[in-house]
Amino acid sequence: MAEIDLGPFPTESGHAEAVALDRADPLGPFRGRFAIDDPELIYLDGNSLGRMPKASLDEAADLVGRQWGSRLIRSWNEGWWDLNERLGDKLGSMIGADPGEVIVSDSTSINLHKLATAALDLDPDRSVILSDDLNFPSDLYVLDGVARRAGGRLERIRSNGAHGLPEGWERAIGPETALVALSHVAYKSGYLYDMAAVTELAHANGALVLWDLSHSVGVVPIDLGAAGVDLAVGCTYKYLNGGPGSPAFLYVREGLQASLRSPITGWWAHADPFGFDLEFTPDAGIRQFHPGTIPVVSAGLIEPGLDLVLEAGVEAIRSKSIALGGFTVDLVEEHLSRHGFEVASPKDAERRGSHVAVSHPEAWPINLAMIDAAAILPDFRAPDTIRLGLSPLYTRFLDVHTAVIRMLHLVEAGVHHEFRGRQATVT
Ligand SMILES: *Cc1c(COP(=O)(O)O)cnc(C)c1O
User: Fold this and answer.
1) What pLDDT sits at residue 160?
2) How far apart are CA 356 and CA 191, in angstroms?
3) Strand partners, 352
4) 411 in Cβ contact with 335 (< 8 Å)
5) N or C: which end of the chain has fewer CB within 10 A?
């Protein structure tokens, strides 16, 4: 297989700027707080699986060695029992939620199922869910299943290309529409929705709103309270760096908690879990939406990542994310557009989350060649998109520059031709 120069590339345009931007970056020191054992590898997949904070190893040792190994069942009264509420409140503080409005629970898919079902159960005359074709397909599968069980249907608005909802979309909200459910940042193009404006239009037309924050939490400022959002879900293993399969979270606006009923009941959701009453009485607060024992080790490992985001501050993270994204777009246009690459994300930073999607007719073999021959980890989304995930706590401007120049050398040398026709399970 062809070898390519891994850089750095001091004579290529953009290098001096990258070095200067890194030097002036107030978040630069945070990179040292993550386990990074391969200096050549450029990790551009923090939008899919965040890197491991160094503190997670100590936390894992404490969770497994001390809390489980020595404290055993006593640990339930020493922090395990309300771990998911405590972490929920901590996470809630970065998304404009009040204490008691967020809980760490289950997976994003299951939380979406619980909250969408509860929203449809509110009014038997309203069983239609409105979403769009930029939403994560898995979310659409969940919403479709929920709507069908309620005797309704999922309606998908056709987006403006990769760029969000078309003008007048709210006319699709009808008397049967219960819920508008969207992703805050589109998983593929990175389009960032105007949460407050969409929520206001949905409310004005009589629907509740549910946002999936998986691609925005920890990297885009979010104020659910100010926007009047009803419901939200999201995962903790992307920009929050909680670890593979770490539990997700859900948000229910305080004023709605008494009227909604979670469709999945269980002892953790009971008003008196240790009363072991034979009848179910739901907890009056957010616990009602979490049915059973949490995976303690995995949930506990969310905390180091949350602490890093809170220490850095989401506003500072967003500023760097915007700068990294703009730098990426400029470099792709300068060095790669003549080789068939196009920026598939919004170029307006205000409307972009923290990954930059590039499209190319040969995106699949190029993506494989980036991984195997160029020591870059991006990801691929069919049919023609490569996502470059920029995670401001550890992605440097020089990483972006080096990655783009490696990509340039790779396509110039035709290295990707060797990868045509190869398959992979996880893309
Ligand atoms: C990552 C992501 C999910 C993940 O769902 P899981 O239940 O953890 O598999 C869901 N929705 C969106 C929009 C995502 O980006």
Assistant:
1) 86
2) 10
3) 191
4) no
5) N
CA distance 128 to 207: 10
Cβ-in-10-Å burial (0-12, 13-18, 19+) of 368 comes to buried
CA of 80 to the centre of ligand 1 (A): 25
pLDDT in tens, 6-63: 999 999 999 999 999 999 999 999 999 999 999 999 999 999 999 999 999 999 999 9
The model's pLDDT over 222-245, given as tens digits with 9 standing for 90+, comes to 999 999 999 999 999 999 999 999
The DSSP bridge pattern shows strands 177-183 and 128-132 to be parallel
Does ligand 1 lie within 6 Å of residue 188's CB atom? no
Distance (Å) of CA 89 to CA 104, 154, 279, 299, 301: 9, 32, 29, 14, 16
C-beta 391 within 6 A of ligand 1: no
Distance, in Å, from the CA atom of 59 to the CA atom of 66, rounded to the nearest integer, reads 10
Which residues 6+ apart lie within 8 Å of 275 measured at CB?
Answer: none
Tokens of 255: 């004023």
Active site residues: 136, 212, 237-238, 387
Residue 303 Cα, ligand 1 centroid: separation in angstroms?
A: 19
Ligand 1 centroid – CA 75 distance (Å): 30
Ligand 1 contact, 170 CB (< 6 A): no
Total length of the chain: 427
Question: How remote is the CA of residue 147 from the centroid of ligand 1, in Å?
Answer: 19
- Cα–Cα distance measured from residue 69 to residue 6, given in angstroms and rounded to the nearest whole number: 44
Enter the tokens of residue 198: 């969409």
pTM: 0.98
Q: Does residue 212 line the site of ligand 1, with CB under 6 A?
A: yes
